Amino acid sequence: MTTQDTLHRPIRDLRISVTDRCNYRCSYCMPFDKYVWIEKDEVLSFEEIARLARLFVGLGVEKIRLTGGEPLVRQNLDDLVAQLVALEGLNDLSLTTNGALLGESADRLKRAGLNRINVSLDTLRADRFRKLTRRGDLNVVLAGIDAARQAGLGPIKINSVIIRGLNDDEILDLADYGRSNGFGVRFIEYMDVGNANGWSLERTLRKKDILEVIQSRYQITQVGRRDGRAPSLDYRYTDGGGEFGVIGSVTEPFCSSCTRGRMTADGRLVTCLFAAEGFDLKSLVRGGASDEELTAAIASVWAQRSNRYSDERWEAIQNGRPFNRGKKIEMITLGG
């Protein structure tokens, strides 16, 4: 069964947040001292997640990515991985992590069937890393990435949000880290996710500027978007140094090809990264709904989807109009 939204976009990708907890307090993601956490008994069990994932796959989902919070703070995550990789019709399962717990979990994740991981890493300077995360140790993360490689996880991609005045002086350092280790670095324009990060366009280093920095040292050629719909526009170093990508999430929005849904740790289906609310699937699951009833609910939500937030934001910016769509779900709740 193929389900399309009002703009004829099918659902092909699903990001599942397994927890809203995180062991970091990154200044641009979680700047506050206190948050209202999801109660543990409201968080979906692995069996509930796997059931819903199976129904999403039946509606056309081909790829699932596990997120958080920090997904590796959820105990025994490899048990969920094993359940998901067994789903017939799922072509790809991956994980996004801050890397702090990779050293102790990489082998278990690999044995459970996980292959691909993305590691969020915005700086290679230990003092800056500590200041940015407010509790992290860069060496632990780098060791965790190495442990993941030794365990056979791959490809390993590095996600780096570039913020003007914060880490834009490390673009070449991050590029060289990727080149020397065989990791594909994805440089991401800083955007207004959630409500807490104090975003402004002045702090966004645009995609064209990121490319200019890289081209000051290396010759590159454009590869394109994976599957034609991936958010990252990929490039290849012409000297054989591998590939990298740039996600122009602000200046080159890709709403028209977005096939991604999200499910929060407490079972809400969210149709856009910038949404204000989600549809409560957990109540249906725990209320005894059949697979058919759940499938119909998911399909109905997606069929009504009309989100094109990033397109509208960029149109407003280009025309000098104010753009404020109100309160959004926080990143720690929604997942990356």
The separation of the N and C termini measures 27 Å
The stretches of 5 or more residues where confidence is low (pLDDT under 50) are none
Measured by DSSP, the beta-strand proportion falls in 15-25%
Q: Specify the overall morphology.
A: globular
The largest sheet has its strands arranged as: 7-8-9-6-5-4-3-2-1-10-11-12
Explain this structure to me?
This protein has 336 residues and is of the alpha/beta class. It has 11 helices and 12 strands. It has helices at residues 46-58, 77-85, 102-112, 126-133, 138-151, 171-181, 207-215, 282-286, 291-303, 309-318, 331-334, and strands at 13-17, 63-67, 92-97, 116-120, 156-162, 184-189, 220-225, 233-237, 243-247, 260-263, 268-270, 279-280. Strands 7-8-9-6-5-4-3-2-1-10-11-12 form a 12-stranded mixed β-sheet. β2 (63-67), α2 and β3 (92-97) form a beta-alpha-beta unit.
Concise account of the structure shown:
The chain is an alpha/beta fold and 336 residues long. It has eleven helices and twelve strands.
Task: Summarize the SSE layout with pairings.
Blueprint: E1 13-17, H1 46-58, E2 63-67, H2 77-85, E3 92-97, H3 102-112, E4 116-120, H4 126-133, H5 138-151, E5 156-162, H6 171-181, E6 184-189, H7 207-215, E7 220-225, E8 233-237, E9 243-247, E10 260-263, E11 268-270, E12 279-280, H8 282-286, H9 291-303, H10 309-318, H11 331-334
Parallel strand pairs: 1-2, 1-10, 2-3, 3-4, 4-5, 5-6, 6-9
Antiparallel strand pairs: 7-8, 8-9, 10-11, 11-12
Helix pairs in contact: 1-2, 1-9, 2-3, 3-5
